[in-house]
From TrEMBL, chain A:
Signal peptide residues on this chain, from the entry's feature table: none
Domain Thiamine pyrophosphate enzyme TPP-binding: 72-211
Metal-binding listed as a keyword: no
UniProt keyword terms in alphabetical order: Oxidoreductase
Oxidoreductase among keywords: yes
One Pfam family cited in the UniProt record for this chain: PFO_beta_C
GO molecular function, one term: thiamine pyrophosphate binding
Top-rank lineage group of the source organism: Bacteria
One example of a Gene Ontology biological process annotation: cellular respiration
Protein name: 2-oxoacid:ferredoxin oxidoreductase subunit beta
Pyruvate ferredoxin oxidoreductase beta subunit C-terminal domain span: 215-264
TrEMBL record, chain B:
Organism (species): Desulfomonile tiedjei
Protein name as catalogued: 2-oxoacid:acceptor oxidoreductase subunit alpha
GO BP terms, alphabetized: response to oxidative stress
Transmembrane segments: none
Domain Pyruvate/ketoisovalerate oxidoreductase catalytic: 14-185
Superkingdom of source: Bacteria
């Protein structure tokens, strides 16, 4: 847990202690320089250090896509599965050994398209896992096709005349599916990610983290750093995450407020 | 002592208590010491319309399959039972309700359509039950009373199994059933005093060790419990659902959990996750669900994660024939999915093997770090046999995992390329042994790598494991007297019972015929199969599919083209169909 570091000596000791739990592995991430996913990595790393979770007691389960590569960049146990199946595999791990802390990570294509059928059931089953959706609204690893969260009209090689399908709102879906912890976050704010992850990891039940990110290689028009920084803002101070109606109101009225939107004990 | 081999059928409309009556026949005869093999068929539609038939083959010797003909037909509904008349043997007996609620036109009654020479026993089931108990609900039991009286079955056997079945439902229900049975029994004993056929009494069978009636599915469920299953993940599908229902009832008391998942992909995904983290888990499905699982099964192959997957085959392709039997998923089980991804596939052929193979599958999966597929079929899953309650030995239940040595902490090679291909596997929670299990091609240290050297080496490693696994896999079983043979039949799964019966028929005529049962479909025991083939002039491979899937797999081991006998009728092979093929082969050989 968070410790109040008062003196410099205490601060140094705290940093040294936290280093022990640094999950960054020697493997160089395959993400493009400047990718938002580095911010998520930083955010999760700080959370695990803060909570003092030992490497061997954490399992990162992923699917396929740029986000799917994440386990290789950590020194935790990892399970890099097939496309879209992150959630069922992660639940299997947690049910087999409840002492483990399980992070399921995947992109918007992995979790909303091919794996979209698992999302409601993981939420309603409420197994105590943490699901981080890295949402950059694009298929990056296959070089820039529109994803289920891409805006209408998005042009790409696969949609030269613009897309027609409406985007899915993962935060709204999680609330609807009955997830017991829902946070919306921004890859450009690792500190915010860490704070929400610390709370969500300690939450008993399915915790969902919808993390807006950018794909600076293939998206030059929509969810760019410049746009996201302009759009994203914290949820109002007086928001009560225990109130599901207010959570719905917040999400229906505003696509870009970030913070802990809902939690049910 | 005369040998008894009698097939009894109960036929009625859904709602007549047909399946319950058939079940009691099985239980009572088993209690009396007979071998029993039973199979029910009922409409796929859940609504209460349609014909229900139970068939029970009752013998003084071991039984491998259902017989072609029926000797005793107990009709609870004449209109439905008319369809069973063509299956009656010569000199068969038919029991029917002589005073049913709704009278039939004369030409609609069963008596009007049976062959001359069939013994007809009209017993007023409905009337007797109503007179004795005030309700006609026990009319199926009155019919069983008649059956017991006519054919020399000790009424005490029935009374005991009726009590066992109904005592939990209250005094009143039990009384209705017992009294109805007695009414039928006494009526038939008096009425047909001069026409009794006490065949079962004459067999003088002595009851051996206590046996239980078990279906293939129950045996599988029990085996999973006994093997220390922790987690079952599944999705409803015929004919595998009863396994999930069985475990849902009994697994929680053993500290385990059944989770009904959103689909079959999720089911096998969770099984892989659980085994990755060190728990024994399984899923059971049928063809369509199995098809959905194939990608993740190959993930288990690639990432070397154990899994136990049961495929209860039904007729295919697509939704196919959900309530019929077939053996047409062999190719899918062995090869289904992307890449060079063969895995362990074993196929039990009777209820006892359903138990032992399921127990074994967990250890095999752990030891060889790959999915193990247990291939059964509708006929095997749903038929009941009376068996001595199987018990798994401690050795069979032992953890099959090979863990890394402590000294390797920090320098651990998860996918170490050993001689057998099996590398020590760590579990999350073990300090200093963290690794990423991945479906990407990878190095010994579990890092993604697509170079020619690595893919060649690691593909070899994964396949080498399977050859080493052969020593632990169930070996082929030869059903033979030895010596040179004219025809050797090779079969697998539930079909083997029919093959055995056909071989018996051939041997009675002095023909040189034998059979070989393949229990490990993949990898298979090449040496043993070849040595059997060498003894045979002709090899006949008999299976319930169109493509000859086992023949495609092992036929090349024979020095000449193997002969195939395939059937896709949705029903099991009749022994006489196989016998006819043997006869044809022998005649061809002579001419």
């Amino acid at each position: 847990m968070k410790t109040a570091a008062t003196s410099l000596a205490e601060q140094i000791r705290h940093i040294k202690e936290a280093k022990k739990f640094d999950i960054r592995s020697g493997a160089l991430p395959t993400w493009c320089p400047g990718c938002g996913y580095f911010g998520i990595h930083q955010g999760l790393n700080a959370c695990i250090q803060e909570l003092g979770l030992a490497h061997h007691e954490v399992v990162t389960v992923s699917g396929i896509g740029c986000a799917g590569r994440y386990p290789f960049f950590t020194s935790n146990y990892g399970l890099h599965t097939v496309h879209g199946r992150t959630l069922p595999v992660a639940q299997g791990v947690k049910l087999a050994n409840p002492d483990l802390t399980v992070y399921a990570v995947g992109g918007d294509g992995d979790g909303l398209a091919i794996g979209g059928g698992h999302f409601p059931h993981a939420a309603r089953r409420n197994v105590n896992i943490n699901y981080l959706m890295f949402d950059n609204s694009i298929y990056g690893l296959t070089k820039g096709q529109p994803s289920p969260s891409s805006p209408v009209g998005m042009k790409s090689k696969a949609s030269p005349f613009g897309t027609l399908d409406k985007p899915l709102n993962a935060t709204l879906m999680a609330l609807t599916y009955g997830a017991s912890f829902v946070a919306r976050l921004f890859a450009g704010d690792p500190k915010g990610i860490t704070e929400a992850l610390i709370e969500g990891t300690q939450h008993e039940g399915f915790a969902f983290f919808h993390i807006y990110s950018t794909c600076l290689t293939f998206d030059k028009a929509y969810k760019t750093w410049a746009h996201l920084k302009q759009w994203v803002h914290p949820i109002p101070e007086d928001h009560d995450p225990a109130d599901l109606r207010r959570a719905f109101d917040l999400v229906l009225g505003d696509d870009f407020s970030t913070g802990i939107i809902y939690r049910r004990e | 002592m005369p040998k008894v081999d009698i097939t009894v059928e109960v036929c009625g409309m859904a709602g007549d208590g047909t399946i319950a009556a058939g079940g009691l026949v099985n239980e009572a005869m088993s209690l009396g010491g007979f071998s029993v093999l039973g199979f029910d068929s009922y409409p796929a539609e859940i609504r209460g319309f349609g014909r229900c038939v139970t068939r029970s083959r009752i013998g003084s010797n071991e039984i491998g399959a259902l017989a072609d003909e029926t000797h005793i037909l107990i009709s609870l509904d004449d209109l439905q039972s008319r369809s069973r008349v063509p299956f009656l043997a010569r000199d068969s007996a038919v029991l029917f309700d002589s005073k049913p609620d709704t009278l039939l036109e004369e030409e609609q009654s069963l008596a009007a359509v049976v062959e001359p020479g069939t013994a007809l026993f009209g017993i007023p089931f409905t009337y007797l039950a109503t007179a004795a108990t005030g309700t006609s609900r026990g009319r199926n039991l009155a019919a069983l009373g008649g059956f017991a009286a006519l054919f020399g079955v000790q009424p005490e056997w029935f009374r005991r199994v009726i009590t066992r079945k109904f005592q939990s439902k209250g005094e009143k229900v039990l009384e209705v059933n017992l009294k109805s049975f007695d009414a039928g029994f006494h009526y038939a004993l008096e009425k047909f005093a001069d026409r009794l056929r006490p065949s079962f009494a004459a067999a003088n069978v002595v009851a051996g060790p206590e046996k239980v009636m078990l279906s293939g599915n129950q045996a599988i469920g029990q085996a999973a419990l006994d093997a220390g299953l922790k987690l079952y993940f599944g999705y409803p599908i015929t004919p595998a659902t009863p396994i999930m229902e069985f475990l849902a009832k009994y697994l929680p008391a053993k500290g385990g959990r059944v989770v009904q998942m959103e689909d079959e992909i999720a089911s096998v995904g969770a099984v892989l996750g659980a085994f990755y983290a060190g728990a024994r888990a399984m899923t059971a499905t049928s063809g369509p669900g199995f098809a959905l699982m194939t990608e993740l099964i190959t993930h288990g192959v690639m990432a070397e994660i154990p899994a136990v997957i049961l495929n209860a085959q039904r007729g295919g392709p697509s939704t196919g024939l959900p309530t019929k039997t077939e053996q047409s998923d062999l190719h899918a089980a062995v090869f289904g999915g992307p890449g060079d991804s063969s895995r362990i596939v074993i196929a039990p052929s009777n209820v006892a093997e359903c138990y032992s193979f399921t127990v074994q599958s967990f250890q095999l999966a752990e030891k060889y770090q790959t999915p193990v597929i247990v291939l059964t079929d509708f006929y095997l899953d749903n038929r009941v046999e009376n068996v001595v309650m199987p018990v798994a030995s401690e050795k069979e239940k032992t953890d099959g995992n090979l863990y890394p040595d402590e000294s390797l902490q920090g320098s651990y090679h998860r996918y170490l390329d050993t001689e057998s291909g099996v590398s020590p596997r760590s579990l999350p929670g073990m300090e200093g042994f963290a690794y990423v299990a991945t479906g990407l091609e990878h190095t010994e240290r579990a890092q993604p790598d697509y170079t020619p050297e690595i893919h060649t080496k690691m593909t070899g490693k994964r396949h080498r494991k399977l050859q080493y696994a052969l020593e632990d896999l169930p070996v082929p079983v030869e059903y033979s007297d030895g010596g040179q043979l004219d025809v050797g039949i090779i079969g697998w799964g539930s079909t083997f019972g029919s093959i055995q019966e056909a071989v018996n028929m051939a041997r009675e005529r002095g023909w040189k015929v034998a059979a070989l049962k393949i229990t490990s479909i993949f990898p298979y025991h090449e040496k043993e199969i070849r040595s059997f083939m060498t003894k045979c002039r002709e090899i006949l491979i008999t299976e319930l599919n169109y493509e000859g899937q086992l023949a495609n797999l092992i036929g090349h081991l024979h020095r000449k083209e193997v002969v195939r006998l395939n059937q896709v009728t949705g029903v099991p092979f009749s022994p006489s169909a196989i016998f006819s093929k043997i006869e044809a082969l022998l005649q061809a050989g002579v001419s």
